[in-house]
Amino acid sequence: MLVTALRTAAHWALDFALPPRCAGCGTIVGEVHSFCPDCWKQIDFLGDSGCSTCGIPLQSTEMTTCAACLAQPPPIARTRAAVAYDDLSRGLAIRLKYGRKVAIARTMARYMAPLVEASGQPILVPVPLHRFRLWQRGFNQSALVAREMARRLSLSSDPFLIRRTKRTAPLKGMSAAQRRKTVAGAFRVPDAQSVEGRHVILIDDVLTTGSTAEACARGLKRAGAARIELISWARVVKPSQLMR
Ligand SMILES: [Zn+2]
Ligand SMILES: [Zn+2]
Question: How far is the CA of 236 from the centre of ligand 2 (A)?
């Protein structure tokens, strides 16, 4: 325990003592938790654009909400992602997942925090891992990001609010319908009082079809949450959907 604490402290000290490096390529940069000009040019920042509900880029015929969200409002009232998913943003997500790099979590939080709307007192909740995977990896990467975002915004975060009760196979390669079926009913809120009537923002690293976050949202709705949003680091967007 003490050794771990000392090691963490040493890493922290190193984080601060070394010159800041670009989170994308490692080049020395002038500012902490930022990107060099070359990486900056490569990143597609999605920000607050797109459908007011799901965040997907709008077609020219659509006003502020896309046709799909108008036809059937999704359980997640607002979905946003900081950047589009590509080699660079994927690299950050992987280094966070397997390296427990607090600096990476801070970089992501820096670009995700502005996507939180100022109103109300939302609680930031990372999409949970199953306890087996948590035990394997030792930490939940999205919990690190949620904690850093909460620190920046003076909000609270709670990595234990939702429990993943079903261990699911990796969703990679599955269709949207298969994903939905796989994760259905996989999440539960053990203490409904903690979310009843509350505004919850789910925090995730990579957003693909959104089926996992949607299953979380259904669990939160069942427990009585008033409003559920999702903010993710990177989102898989078709190249044709990117407006440059
Ligand atoms: Zn760079
Ligand atoms: Zn939409």
Answer: 15
Asked if pLDDT for residue 2 goes beyond 80, the answer is no
Question: Quick one: which ligand is closest to 64's CA?
Answer: 2
Alpha carbons 54 and 51: distance in angstroms, whole number: 6
Distance 58 CA to ligand 2 centre (A): 8
Ligand 1 centroid to residue 205 C-alpha, Å: 20
Q: Which long-range contacts (CB under 8 A, 24 or more apart) does 37-41 make?
A: 39/88
Q: What token pair was written down for 206?
A: 């990579």
The model's pLDDT over 213-237, given as tens digits with 9 standing for 90+, comes to 999 999 999 999 999 999 999 999 8
| Distinct helix (H) and strand (E) counts, the chain | 9, 7
pTM: 0.87
What is the number of the ligand closest to the CA of 43? 1
